[in-house]
Amino acid sequence: MEDYQLGVIETKFAGIIWTSAPLTTRALVERCEKELNWKRTTTYSVLKKLCGKGFFRMENKMVTVLVSKAEYNSFRSEKFVQETFSGSLPALVLSFGSRKKLSEAEIDELQSVIDSMRG
Predict the structure, then answer these.
(1) What is the rounded CA–CA span in Å between residue 57 and residue 55?
(2) How many domains does the chain have?
């Protein structure tokens, strides 16, 4: 899958699937009507697009997840760090910390993450 980019509306739509999958196409249409005020045709069009991008699969009127929300967020985070900080996670933390003082709890949490990555 090359295109992990989702627009704002696609992200809302994907969120419905991520929180409910597996689900029937009928249930998805009903949720999109209620939450996004979409018609059935809009739901199917966006679903087809995201299936084509490799996020979801629709088979036998069932929608399943191929790329989890965590996987998507991880990819987008990595891409942001790569594009904005030349791939340097320390540069991201330094940039963030230069504008906002980190609390002791946040520093402890970051240290815990770093320690777990060493092991």
Answers:
(1) 7
(2) 2
Can you list the pairs that 70-79 forms with residues at least 24 positions away whose Cβ atoms lie under 8 Å? 72/4, 72/6, 72/14, 75/4, 76/4, 79/4
Same domain, residue pair 88 and 63: no
Mean pLDDT of all residues in 5-21: 95
CB within 8 A of 88, min separation 6: which ones? 81
Q: Are residues 16 and 63 in the same domain?
A: yes
Domain that holds residue 42: 8-67
Asked if the model's pLDDT at residue 1 lies above 70, the reply is no
pLDDT at 2 over 80: no
Residues 26 and 37 occupy one common structural domain:
yes
Residues 63 and 13 in one domain: yes
* Whole-structure pTM value: 0.79
**DSSP assignment letter at 87:** T
